[in-house]
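Title: Comparing notes on inverse folding

I've been comparing how different people in this forum approach sequence design from structure. To keep things fair, I'm posting one structure and asking everyone to reply with a full sequence. Here's the target:
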């Protein structure tokens, strides 16, 4: 997913030449997502930097340092530590992509991630099958199949970004 988040960020803000991925280096999933961002950045000719953080103060520090040069953007990898408000991204007028739609509802620019309502519906189907006698060990492990793209136009305006119209038409939800 890390590479997909970077692709979404590039489509949202085509001027991006550099990207900072906010990463919790202690979490193996974050490291895998970072590698995906790094590989995609190479393919898109974007300079990628990992902002390894352990607390909220470090998040602010790596964003402030990264913001010193132009044409930057943020890929905020999902983790309890990285669920932060968009104030730093707004302050430095940097576009940011998140994994959770809730981040965009709270002021973030764009998210691409699992449609959690669909996931919960699918969980209910599994519970129903188990209650009807299926053995949990016999049920297949399924990956998410439905994803959603959410764009916050208020946030785009706040950072002076014009979202490409073709990209807007692909959004599942646009916050105005």
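Reply #1:
Here's my take.
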């Amino acid at each position: 997913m890390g590479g997909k988040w970077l692709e979404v960020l590039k489509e949202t803000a085509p001027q991006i030449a550099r990207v900072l991925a906010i990463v919790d280096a202690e979490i193996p999933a974050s490291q895998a997502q970072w590698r995906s961002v790094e590989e995609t950045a190479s393919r898109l000719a974007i300079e990628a930097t990992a902002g390894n953080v352990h607390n909220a103060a470090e998040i602010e520090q790596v964003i402030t340092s990264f913001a010193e040069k132009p044409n930057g953007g943020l890929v905020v990898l999902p983790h309890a530590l990285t669920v932060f408000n968009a104030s730093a991204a707004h302050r430095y007028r940097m576009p940011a992509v998140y994994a959770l739609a809730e981040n965009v509802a709270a002021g973030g620019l764009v998210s691409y991630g699992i449609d959690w309502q669909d996931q919960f519906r699918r969980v209910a189907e599994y519970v129903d099958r188990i209650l009807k006698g299926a053995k949990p060990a016999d049920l297949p492990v399924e990956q998410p199949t439905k994803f959603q793209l959410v764009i916050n136009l208020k946030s785009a305006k706040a950072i002076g970004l014009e979202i490409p119209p073709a990209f807007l038409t692909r959004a599942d939800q646009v916050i105005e």
